[in-house]
Fold this protein.
Amino acid sequence: MKKALITGGTVFVSRYAAEYYVKKEYEVYVLNRNSRVQPEGVILIEADRHNLGNQLRDDHFDVVFDITAYDAEDVDCLLDALGSYGDYILISSSAVYPEYGPQPFCENTQLGENKFWGKYGTGKIEAEQALIRRNPDAYILRPPYLYGPMNNVYREAFVFECARKNRPFYLPQEGQMKLQFFYIDDLCRFMDILLEQKPKQHIFNVGNRETISVHDWVSLCYKIAGKDVEFVNVSGNIEQRNYFSFYNYEYCLNVKAQEEMMPETTVLEDGLEESFRWYLGHSDAVNSKPFIQYIDTHLN
């Protein structure tokens, strides 16, 4: 039985990964402060990653999935505390690419501050650099927008909520802005492939090859919820993030290296259907934002 350490383990990506690897019969340890309900089948290490002392020193982990590192300090604190370990996979972000860079972004694109993501993106750059300095054999994954069951971010959940309430959907401009997604289960499958194949490349963009317009994505979410969508187009200088889940920022990742190792990804409609099924039973787990209130107050 392989032994895995997952940082976090209680919210979206880290929780899904914890349950995924429990099902694959790993011995899964989760590192968190025990402020939320833990996944079934895991072993809890209750601690703050910045104050681990010797709690990890005597353990060996076959793989470390670092899903909650947001800056260099996060990475350094964990590496300082670890005893021995095998593979290390860091979940970074497409936010490391500056918005003005040439697209689609490739893994060797110059990194820099992205005005839409700000400190989140620069922190991820610092986390990557800290890891590469100390473990050049580690793997780094840069996903676009992740979606799927357990997603507590108010993205597809917002559209599902509007659909279930039979609301018209307020669409930025004509809805032609493109989005790129990656299904959470595909992320875990790709990590499996990394662990099995041990490629020489260590930094990967990951995501669906296809992008989708905001108009078509919203339409698909309404369809999955069993509703027809009526659009209201919002034009002018109204800040998009006041009433919609995404920044007014279109980008695309080049995922050819991922495709060579994992040619097939989950069809977006299939992944959204799984998301909807989860949402129906867990809407209270989503971090809602006041989009609907803003729409009713300012756009009606």
Summary: The longest strand covers residues 84-91.
